[in-house]
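Pipeline run #58 for the internal structure catalog. This entry was flagged by the ingest filter as a single-chain record with no existing model, so it goes straight to prediction. Upstream metadata was stripped on purpose; only the residue string is passed forward. Reviewer on rotation: M.T. Logging verbosity set to normal.
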Amino acid sequence: MKRIRLWLMLMVCAWSVNGFAQDVARDILNEGQQLDEFGNPVQDDKKGQKTWGRDTSKVDQTVPTEFHQWHIDERLGTVLPEAYNDTLPHLFQNFNSTDGYYGEYNYTGNLGAPRLSRLFLDREMTSDFMFLQPYDYFHTTPSSILFTNTKSPLTNLQYHSCGTRENGQDRVRAYFSSNINKIAGFGFKIDYAYGRGYYNSQANSLTGGSLFGYYLGERYDLHAMAYWAHMKTSENGGIEDDKYIKDPESFARSVRSRDIPTVLSSVWNRNDVQTYFLNHRYHLGIYRAGELSDSLKAAMPKDEELLLSLGSDSLQNEILGDTLRLATTLDSLRQAWKDKQPEIPREFVPVTSFFHTFKTQVLNHNLYLRSGLNSGYLTRTQPFYGQSFSGTDETKALSVKNTVGVQLREGFNKWAKAGITLFASHEIQRFTLPDSTSTDSLSVLNRYVENHITVGGEIQKMMGKTLHYSAGAEFWVVGPKAGEMDIHGTGDLNFRLLKDTVHLEAKAFFKNVFAPFYYTHYHSRALWWDQDFKSETHTRVEGTLKFDRLGTSIRFGVENISNYTYLAYANKSTGEDAEGNTTSFTRNLEVRQQSGSIQVMSATLTQNFHFGIFHWDNAVTWQHTTNPDVIPLPTISLYTNPYVVFHVAKVLRVEAGVDLRYFTSYYAPAYAPLMNQFAIQDPNLTRVKIGNYPIFNGYLNLAIKRVRGYLSVQHFNESGGNAFLVPHYPIDPLSIHFGISWNFYD
């Protein structure tokens, strides 16, 4: 009942805001018009009579549903077109999966749990706000917001659920967007996910919301966003003995997932984040007459037609008899005809833009220890501050960044084949950490304040259909990160080959970066370090070849990394049973730097087949790392999805199939609950492999008009085996999921 009440409340709120937005838009559009007692504009008697607030002379029209969407580059504010994915029924059953649309993420189990991609080329580099990265499934950034220009207010409501009151998962999402007028709009997104978990002490609660708006004027445009989120994760440290999953028959009786003992209880990680973003720009340019196609241009009348406008036949004959007078008269008539033609509207062509981007982010990360830590879970017997492992560890981070720049716009004349941008930015960062080694109090704090100044530029060509490219560089010139650099470039070539369209894409970058702040400074009860590292360099080259008609995509990339810095998480066995199997572990987390270079190569083949109603989508990735102890990767990752698509009564779209996720075994990164991060297993100590275990999911997708729904059975091949996506964190047992999405345009 609680779930139903929550769902109904969100629907009412969304519809209420929807109606409010329509009233605001109507008031603006009807400004200056006389309104009746119902707030509707009064019609002229000649155009139609009003009867009780409605026009009886007109037939009700269908609500327009046309809209287009875009997102923006959060550094420069560049507008990037985007498709609205929530209207696509294909793969809707995977929308709410924490392991991604194609099962490419490792995660600790349960909805909204921390996750890490198995595909190295898809991983983001560790940032100073690293605690948010494991929650990219949920966390909203300025560049991920979809701005919408719509003819009718757009509302999308979603609900996803599975399980029972004891172990169930629920997620409610609401997206709303409405135009104020043709060049301005606003909207919001609300997201709530709650997973109780199939194992003890595993519940997750994530709540977030964002407000956004835009204005796209002739000389001035603006994009703005405000976002907040609360993300709370219960930490159980994994199960105490993997045999509960790998060999359940070794136990005298069957054990439910809730009966399996876990390492931790009453331990939580919590992240509270706020983001405020504004990008606006002012354009300088020129006005020029718009060009009309030949079919729209009015043709100059013939001479005899011009003379007919004189009316009198005698006057026409008189003019025709005088050659000089005829020429003068025709010139006058031609000019008079031109003067009567409607003026071609002039269009504003931006030549130069000045822009300013403001972004501030506030993060509060807490680790709550309510029952104390098991001493067997830690290698350290005493905390660095205080006398107890119970309590709260807290760190805060603040970033305020301003970027200003000037852009010479692409395409303002035939010689401007590319746009050029120059910019500079200033960022102030402040990190707050406990700074006491001898007292229980957390009130003794140390603040680290850093100022960074960067300069950079970019050249970009995005117009046209055949060739696009972008190349840029940014250099850190002042502050602790002075010497960092980011040089990058992308390009794509699109052309016809026989009866197919071919897309060739290329990416490359060279980055020289310093370790993120929390790799150099971190203070807590169980973990404490202050250290310096050399800068690390990343050099990557990547290419993708796509064939539209064949449904084929080939992606290949190689990256070289020097002085790689990473978290190492030692899973050292401390107890064994009579058969020599590990029963308990100690865990000691630290930051390490690998001297020398590591190379990572990756190739992905995507092939989609289509025969009538039968479809078969496939994606297989091969990866190789020259140092698997530091960057462990599965050699093969596979996703395959055979399904059928058909229609019932020509209106109900049905998609039914079974998908498979599989990857070869490897020493995957373990999860460190005391830091809310993934870390490498120490190769010199006992390690655990995961993988070589298929995961089958069956599903049924339904779509009719504006409504989509699904029913899926996940992990229906549950049995004894290596059913882990993270060491010691089992995959959820067989579970039935359903979801619904509904679009409203009114």
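catalog note: The first strand starts at residue 50 and ends at 51.
catalog note: The radius of gyration is 32 Å.
status: ready for reviewer M.T.
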